[in-house]
Amino acid sequence: MVQVMQTEIVMADYPDALDHYFPANLTEIWLDDNSTNVSAVLVNGTESETDIDLVVLRWMTIKAVMVPVVFALIFVAGCLGNGTLIHVFVRHKELRTTPNIYIVALSVGDLCVVLFCIPFVATIYTFQSWPYGLIMCKIGEFVTQASTGMSVFTLTALSVDRYVAITHPMRAHVGNNPRRLTYCVVAGIVVLALLCALPFLLFAEVVPKGHDGILVCHPYPEHFGPGYGQGMVVYKALLYYAVPLTLITVFYISMARRLVQSAASMPGEARARRQINSRKNVAKMVLGFVFFFAVCFLPNHVFFLWFYFDPNAEQVYNIFWDILRILGFTLSFTNSCVNPVVMYCVSSTFRKMFNR
């Protein structure tokens, strides 16, 4: 009887290796592990007789072409969008307000991801093995995590700034130079993001996987044991996602309540109405940043929490989970090019400067 090829993607040779720089040639490895099955099919049977799921093979082929193309589009959009936003900010002094300083800090972090991370990840789908050596493995992991930290910490600081500006407008103007304070906060965010990403710089390693000596840039050293990988996955999910988004949600609920109260009690003067509308527009813009961040990073965290904590993850890993994995880290990179789009759509001032 012809042995049936399983629809699951065999992951036995890849314990704890599914992260940013996971090799793309799962099809080759999978077929190598099932070479007897393939031979039996070619000699003894047809598709209908053996129930071979060609969807798996088609998905692997599509993925090998689709992901580099998507990354190329993200790279171009990210460079143009973030580069233009930074250029407009530097060129026009009138844009150097407190919220815009935070937004430019976001763009700097996103531009780092686009320039230093996306090209390395995209080439994995061409070379099928990590070709850049240990140093670039460490730097790539470090920059990715530091940029993520910078983004989420800056979004949190921006939400706090908007909360203070809306709920305590007089405090927002305390001090001789509020912009200097903002620059200091941004500098502190950069230092914090670098410190939080330090384990990835220190411990990332290049290890061989599979039967063909394929190299994987692995952020969690295997000799630390599975507990380290699990701990770091929780560390990232809490530090870079759950805790900041919870704080941001609390601030936005408070802001929404204050804006409703202000709109109800504000006298019908044109100047007062313009002021409240301006605050609302900035709050909407920040909310757009937060929304896209939450959506873009959710699949990535869901996948890795499942993979590292489900004891049967390697056995049940199939097309669904592979699609979720690809979707997760593709969306996480897509987040690096959406902020300029949100700002262009919401900020009429930036739109005018951009169109000049």
UniProtKB/TrEMBL annotation:
The chain crosses the membrane at residues 65-89, 101-122, 142-160, 181-203, 238-260, 281-306, 326-346. Keywords: Cell membrane, Disulfide bond, G-protein coupled receptor, Glycoprotein, Membrane, Receptor, Transducer, Transmembrane, Transmembrane helix. One of its GO terms (molecular function) is neuropeptide receptor activity. It is found in: Cell membrane. Pfam families: 7tm_1. The keyword Aminoacyl-tRNA synthetase does not apply. InterPro entries: Bombsn_rcpt-like, GPCR_Rhodpsn, GPCR_Rhodpsn_7TM. Residues 81-343 form the G-protein coupled receptors family 1 profile domain. The keyword DNA-binding does not apply. GO terms for cellular component: plasma membrane. Its main location: membrane. It is a multi-pass membrane protein. SMART domains: 7TM_GPCR_Srsx (SM01381). Belongs to the G-protein coupled receptor 1 family. This is G-protein coupled receptors family 1 profile domain-containing protein. It comes from Notodromas monacha.
